[in-house]
Amino acid sequence: MSRKVSKKKKKQKALLNMILFMAFIFIFLFFSIVLLFTNKNRGSYVVNDYREEYLESATPLAVSTGRKYGLFPSVVLAQSALESSWGTSELSREYNNYFGIKANKNELEQNMMTSEFVNGVEVRVKQPFREYHSMKESFKHYGQLISEADRYEKVRNASNYTEAAYAIKECGYATDPRYAEKIISIIESHDLYELD
Q: 58-195: which CATH number, 2.120.10.70, 1.10.10.410, 1.10.530.10, 3.40.630.30?
């Protein structure tokens, strides 16, 4: 009788071990899948985070620049985001140039590679970019440039952010044929028109 009980207990113990092992595997797989999706979603949050961080840090400057120089703050902010790759470009991080403004003679400059469009074809060229002491100085110079240079009169006369974005492109600020659309896309995807 004790042998039968012993065999029965061994079978029960083996079955219990099997159930525990299967439960462990199930729990492990469940948490692995949850972790995988959490990290996948976290990656998208990271992408959005640096953009949101840039908008938070640059919005006050864009608004004050827009008001001081009679420009649309939404365009100022979106253009700075586009030109600086949301504050991540070397030009913005190292040299505080948030608008891709080229250097004139006797100005602090950094020669860097950039993309230009020549006859509709994108080419890489080295250009002298202006260096600024701060982000604030970069925004101030941009405001002065757009509000004072004759070539940007259409930007100043625009009645809304869409007209201003197309005017910036038309006035020769950038060679990218889709420059205005990119600015408008940033404005509309982040509701920046609310700043105007």
A: 1.10.530.10
